[in-house]
């Protein structure tokens, strides 16, 4: 099975030396673009991380940390995400991060509806949408339709994943040590050649490749 190794970061990692990260063998990075539905909730280092990581040759994705508890708020979060990523290209998915206690209390029907609203809005705009969730959310809160319809970024800090469903990425540690990043950082493995998928299908800002 092919594997690609990466990190995911936010403003909490402060300034990052992306050339060192790349030389350390990390091939991709998922960048937090924001949290919530307001313009004021943009990640303060998203623009800098995008620019510097791209210049270092990293393949990039983005995620938005959700606080939505209504479909209207999920739609607003999708629009906020679209404003953040507009004009950029991403070789990796654009991910909806659902992990709060308030999300879990919503139950299957309501949380699944939020995810569908966000992801379908992103797809309608030409992006490859995915879900970030832990095994508990995937197995006990999100519907089977949602977790099979959208790609999954599995959050499980363990030596090996125990989730039985399909997933394209796995966040396996929150205490990684990577040159170029001060302090602990999340570590990830991807099991798909996402950049090839994006280029082949003209997603995430890429122009669709000629199939002739």
Descriptive account of the structure:
This protein has one domain: TIM Barrel, CATH 3.20.20. By secondary structure, the chain is α/β, with parallel strands linked by helices. It has an 8-stranded mixed β-barrel with strand order 1-2-3-4-5-6-7-8.
CATH superfamily: Glycosidases
Name the average pLDDT: 96
Low-confidence stretches: none
Q: How are the strands of the biggest sheet laid out side by side?
A: 1-2-3-4-5-6-7-8
| Rounded Rg | 16 Å
CATH class: Alpha Beta
Q: Separation of termini?
A: 28 Å
Name the quaternary structure: single chain
Query: Biggest sheet, in brief?
Result: 8 strands, mixed, barrel
Envelope shape:
globular
Number of domains: 1
Number of strands: 8
User: What fold name goes in the CATH topology slot?
Assistant: TIM Barrel
Structural class computed from helices and strand pairing: alpha/beta
Could you spell the SSE succession in H and E letters?
A: EHEHEHEHEHHEEEH
Second rung of CATH, namely the architecture: Alpha-Beta Barrel
The percent of residues in helical segments reads 25-40%
Strand content: 15-25%
Q: How many separate helices? A: 7
């Amino acid at each position: 099975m092919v594997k690609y190794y990466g990190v995911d970061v936010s403003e909490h990692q402060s300034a990052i030396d992306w050339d060192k990260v790349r030389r350390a063998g990390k091939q991709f990075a998922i960048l937090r673009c924001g949290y919530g539905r307001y313009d004021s909730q943009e990640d303060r280092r998203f623009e800098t991380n995008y620019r510097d990581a791209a210049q270092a040759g990293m393949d990039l994705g983005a995620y938005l940390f959700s606080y939505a508890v209504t479909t209207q708020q999920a739609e607003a979060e999708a629009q906020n995400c679209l404003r953040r990523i507009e004009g950029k290209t991403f070789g990796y998915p654009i991910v909806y991060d659902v992990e709060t206690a308030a999300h879990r209390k919503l139950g299957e029907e309501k949380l699944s509806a939020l995810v569908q609203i966000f992801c379908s809005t992103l797809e309608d705009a030409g992006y490859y949408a995915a879900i970030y969730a832990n095994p508990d959310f995937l197995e006990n809160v999100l519907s089977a339709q949602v977790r099979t319809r959208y790609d999954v970024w599995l959050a499980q800090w363990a030596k090996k994943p125990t989730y039985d469903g399909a997933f394209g990425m796995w966040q396996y540690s929150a205490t990684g040590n990577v040159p170029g990043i001060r302090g602990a950082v999340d570590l990830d493995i991807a099991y798909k050649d996402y950049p090839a998928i994006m280029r082949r299908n003209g997603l995430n800002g890429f122009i669709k490749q000629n199939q002739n």
